[in-house]
């Protein structure tokens, strides 16, 4: 899910033409999860082939990638590797939420409440190893490069941007800013119309760009202080301190300098230990990445794609 810090950042509306001939490192798990959640029938059932196999991710990845290439954007998809041990609690909590959503989905279907069923079904999506394998095979057939990250996909994508091998990270989450990506592009893989949750109405969406350096300057903080703010709020690697949201964390960090001083000042019982703070900082400031990758866009193998 990432850290909820979006309200603090200036998001600049851009057009696809602003990204012509740019390389965008796309958080693969992020977009595949979107496809699995959104490409469903009225009753919430996922798109399937004649064998009954889920194909929502295949359909979404094919058409969205085609649209990006048609817009003269060069995508590279980055896949998650092994999660950090501190993330296991978050992963377990997500698994439990999906189990509850599955139960509520079945109940809604039995009650004939298709709208509730569809909403609950969207919350059950899982990116399995088979789905990842199929997605990589499709990208290879399309001639689109992909990278296997050793750990967090967003960390590897951010590394590509910092190295100058890509212009921006394409993701809906803000974590790549914590991981030091100079530029984040959101809504890159969203359709022009987005359905409002729980309503039969839509809003128009546009790609939005967030530049890290300019935003840090505007907020009056450093990158390390941004990471400290995230730890106060809560990340995928820690729960955060109760009652502290984005605005309060910004105020506390600007007033106290770092998270250690904040904790010493407010004396929160649910605060992370100094060892935990050190480890989480390292995840964001010194992430595990690899230089073993090749970026090449080649002609598609149409027969294999079909």
Structure description:
With 306 residues, the chain is of the alpha/beta class. The protein contains 13 helices and nine strands. The strands form two sheets. Strands 1-9-6-5-2-3-4 form a seven-stranded mixed beta sheet, with helices on both faces. Strands 7-8 form a two-stranded antiparallel sheet. The longest helix is centred in the first third of the chain and has 24 residues, at 88-111. The protein is globular and about 60 Å long.
Précis, in short:
The protein is of the alpha/beta class. The protein has helices spanning 28-38, 56-70, 88-111, 114-122, 129-142, 153-163, 175-178, 212-219, 223-233, 246-256, 259-266, 274-285, 302-305; strands at 12-13, 23-27, 74-79, 146-148, 168-170, 183-186, 193-195, 202-204, 208-211. The protein is built from 13 helices and 9 strands.
Largest sheet: 7 strands, mixed
Question: Strand share of the residues?
Answer: 5-15%
Low-confidence stretches: none
Radius of gyration: 20 Å
Number of helical stretches of at least 4 residues: 13
Give me the strand/helix succession. EEHHEHHHEHEHEEEEHHHHHH
**Could you report the average pLDDT, rounded to the nearest whole number?**
91
Number of strands: 9
Helix content: 40-55%
Form type: globular
Looking across the biggest beta sheet, what order are the strands in? 1-9-6-5-2-3-4
Distance between the termini: 33 Å
* Multimeric state: single chain
Strand pairing plus helix content: what structural class? Answer: alpha/beta
């Amino acid at each position: 899910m990432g850290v909820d810090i979006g309200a603090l950042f200036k998001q600049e509306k851009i057009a696809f033409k602003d990204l012509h001939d740019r390389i965008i490192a796309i958080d693969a798990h992020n977009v595949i999860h979107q496809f699995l959640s959104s490409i469903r029938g009225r009753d919430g059932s996922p798109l399937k082939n004649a064998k009954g196999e889920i194909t929502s991710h295949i359909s979404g990845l094919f058409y969205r990638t085609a649209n990006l290439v048609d817009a003269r954007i060069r995508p590279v998809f980055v896949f998650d590797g092994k999660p950090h041990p501190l993330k296991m609690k978050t992963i377990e909590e997500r698994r439990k939420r999906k189990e509850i959503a599955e139960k509520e989905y079945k109940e809604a279907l039995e009650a004939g409440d298709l709208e509730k069923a569809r909403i609950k079904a969207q919350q059950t999506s899982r990116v399995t190893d088979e789905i990842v394998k199929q997605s990589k095979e499709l990208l290879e057939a399309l001639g689109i490069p992909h990278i296997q990250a050793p750990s967090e996909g967003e960390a590897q994508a951010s590394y590509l941007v910092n190295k100058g091998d890509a212009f921006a990270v394409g993701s809906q989450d803000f974590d790549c800013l914590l991981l030091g990506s100079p530029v984040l592009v959101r809504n890159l893989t969203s359709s022009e119309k987005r359905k409002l949750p729980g309503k039969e109405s839509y809003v128009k969406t546009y790609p939005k760009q967030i530049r890290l350096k300019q935003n840090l300057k505007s907020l009056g903080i450093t990158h390390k202080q941004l990471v400290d703010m995230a730890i106060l709020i809560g990340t995928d690697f820690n729960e955060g301190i109760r009652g502290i949201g984005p605005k309060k964390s910004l105020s506390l960090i600007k007033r106290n300098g770092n998270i250690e001083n904040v904790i010493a000042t407010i004396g929160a019982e649910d605060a992370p230990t100094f060892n935990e703070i050190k480890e989480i900082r390292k995840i964001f400031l010194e992430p595990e990445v690899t230089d073993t990758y090749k970026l090449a866009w080649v002609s598609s193998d149409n027969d294999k794609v079909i």
